[in-house]
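Dear support,

I submitted the protein below through the web form. The confirmation email said the job was done, but the results page showed an empty box. After a refresh the structure appeared. I'm attaching both so you can tell me whether what I see now is the final result or a partial one.
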Amino acid sequence: MRSLLIALLSLLITSCANVKQIERGRLSSKIMQLNPNPEESVFLEEVNSYREGAAGGSASVGGGCGCN
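What the results page shows now:
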C-alpha cells in the first residue's frame, strides 16, 4: 500500500512541467498532436461508413437525452 502511494505521488509530482516560450513551437508541431493527420482520419471514416453501411458512432457527442 505504501509503495503504491509513493508511486502515485511521484507520478503526480513529475507530470507537470513549465514550458519555455521558445519550446512551445516544437510542442505544437503536427507530430506532437494526438491526431497528426485529421484529413486522413475524416477520409478513412467516410470510407468505413460506406463499407459498413452505417454512419456515425465514432465520436461521442451529446448527452444521451435525445436533444441535438
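Response: this is the final, complete result; the empty box was a page-load delay. The mean pLDDT is 76.
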